[in-house]
Amino acid sequence: MRLTRVYLPALIVLASACASSRAANDPNELRTVAPKAKKNPNVITKDELIDPAITSRDAYTAIRHLRPNFFVYHGPSTPNDPAAGLTQISENYGPLRPVKDLSAMNTFTFVEVRYLNAEAATARFGLNANGGPVIVLVSNLDAQ
Fold it and tell me: Which has the closest alpha carbon to 113: 138, 88, 86, 95?
């Protein structure tokens, strides 16, 4: 009798563990949790930008919160050109502007924010990129 009291609870725990393990591996079982989509480290999507915690901030703070690596210093400046290697911004692949301009913008009209490394920025913007990366702000042209 005493032996039954010890083994019965252990048997119940073991049986329930096996049952839950089998159910988790059942291909016919519906999964209630969707897998997270992997974020592209070089693109901030509209879905990320419409988060209320993000839209309440200026564009500089929002981008810095979502992808802090966009603002990491990427290259040496030279005595002749202290801006060489610094990150710049472009709206809809237009003229390049300094990053400080982001502080006066909001994210409401952005469809995506794209990071171009120094090589891609030079290929797209030529010598204007100054050997540094460019953050491209893709706006919804209909909203302007």
Answer: 138
List the Cα angle 96/110/59 in 5-degree steps.
Answer: 70
Distance (Å) of CA 70 to CA 20, 101, 139:
44, 15, 18
Print pLDDT tens along the chain (144 aa): 555 566 666 667 666 666 554 445 555 555 555 566 688 999 999 999 999 988 889 999 999 999 999 988 656 556 666 667 789 999 999 999 999 999 999 998 899 999 999 999 999 999 889 888 999 999 986 544
Domain spans, the chain: 43-143
Question: What are the start-end ranges of the E strands in the chain?
Answer: 43-44, 88-91, 96-98, 110-116, 134-139
Which residues, listed in sequence order, are joined to residue 44 by a DSSP beta bridge?
113
Check if the beta carbon of residue 104 is closer than 8 Å to that of residue 117: no
**β-pairing verdict for 134-139 and 43-44:** unpaired
pTM recorded for the entire structure: 0.67
